[in-house]
Write a structure and sequence with these properties.
Pfam families: ADH_N, ADH_zinc_N. It comes from Kribbella alba. The protein is α/β, with parallel strands linked by helices. It folds into two domains: 128 residues, Quinone Oxidoreductase, Chain A, domain 1 (Alpha-Beta Complex), CATH 3.90.180.10; 146 residues, 3-Layer(aba) Sandwich (Rossmann fold), CATH 3.40.50. 31% of the residues lie in helices and 26% in strands. Strands 3, 4, 5, 6, 7, 14 and 15 form a seven-stranded mixed β-sheet that branches. A six-stranded parallel β-sheet has the order 10-9-8-11-12-13, sandwiched between helices. A two-stranded antiparallel sheet has the order 1-2. Strand 9, helix 4 and strand 10 form a beta-alpha-beta unit. Helix 2 packs across helix 3 and helix 2 packs across helix 9. It is globular and about 60 Å long.
Length: 316
């Protein structure tokens, strides 16, 4: 079968099309004919060798697929060991979820990693309460675009979208943000406070990291919560001064989806809810681009350049 393999760590150039034997499911696994595989920032970290927990070479990237089992069921499933960038993959049977007919392949893939991340950071990490103000950094991205919609659905009083271009800001407003601001660091805090009628905010969601994370801390009010769920800037992790946090009773939390899925009601229930919200039109996952499997390199290049919006999909 055709697949994309990484034999050495590096940038998108190490994503090489190859022919490999089709996988054979072990007990507790399902064979899936891949209709589409999702592209994530985590895939770029695995490819360059910087992923948390490490990655052994060689490997086939791709941690989420949607496709058909031999008996015809249309399934969505994660495969954190990798293997999704291929014509067929084996997935854990206990993690495979049926996809409603009203949900397209790209939409389903957007819900698996990005959707679950947005759901958890709002529900469980930020503990968003009705009426609170929320800042979503990278608001036009895969997680950000869903976080904007879910924050409104969960009852946020004001959703402030931060994005890098006027086009992305306008998109976030169309998705339900009350206001959008330029995410450039120079003047960031002032723009965010102005967007919240001059007041600090209750929640900041950040996947950029580095100095952007520190800027987000500056706009939090008392008992405000910042949730960090990524490091797209590839900057060093900033040190957080506990005394500074204590002065305003602020909270900085970290989030990683993989362990969260193992918690009680951490996977099946929220994913089923997200699929239902999508099928009924209450949220709209964005699909930012469909690429042939052989163009995996270009998909990674576009993702790293931050030139895309929404979910990127590879199709065998």
């Amino acid at each position: 079968m055709r697949a994309i393999q990484v034999s050495r760590f590096g940038g998108p150039e190490v994503l090489v099309p190859v022919e490999v034997p089709a996988p054979v499911p072990a007990p507790g696994e399902l064979l899936v004919e891949v209709a589409a595989a999702g592209v994530n920032y985590a895939d770029t970290h695995r490819t360059e060798g910087s992923y948390r927990g490490g990655t052994d070479l060689p490997f086939i990237p791709g941690v989420e697929v949607v496709g058909r089992t031999p008996d015809g069921r249309r399934m969505l499933a994660p495969i954190f060991a990798g293997g999704g960038y291929a014509e067929a993959a084996v997935v854990p049977a206990a993690r495979a979820v049926d996809v409603p007919d009203d949900v397209e392949d790209g939409e389903a893939l957007a819900l698996l990693v990005q959707g679950l991340t947005a759901w958890h950071v709002l529900r469980n990490s930020a503990r968003l309460a009705p009426g609170e103000s929320v800042v979503v950094n990278a608001a036009a991205g895969g997680v950000g675009s869903l976080a904007v919609q879910l924050a409104k659905y969960f009852g946020a009083g004001r959703v402030i979208a931060a994005a890098s271009t006027p086009e992305k800001q306008a998109l976030a407003v169309r998705l339900g943000a009350d206001v959008a601001v330029d995410s450039a660091l120079d003047g960031y805090a002032g723009r965010v406070r102005a967007a919240n009628d001059g007041r600090p905010v209750d929640v900041v969601l950040d996947a950029i990291g580095g100095v952007t994370l520190l800027a987000g801390m500056d706009v939090l009010g008392g008992f405000g919560r910042l949730v960090s769920y990524g490091n797209a800037a590839r900057e060093g992790r900033p040190l957080v001064d506990l005394e500074v946090l204590a002065e305003s009773n602020k909270v900085v939390a970290g989030f990683w989806l993989r362990p969260a899925m193992e918690y009680p009601r951490g996977y099946q229930e929220p994913l089923t809810e997200l699929l239902e919200l999508t099928a009924t039109g209450k949220i709209r996952p964005l699909v930012g681009g469909n690429y042939p499997l052989g163009d995996a390199r270009r998909a990674h290049e576009d993702l790293l350049a931050r030139s895309t919006t929404g979910k990127l999909v590879l199709r065998p």
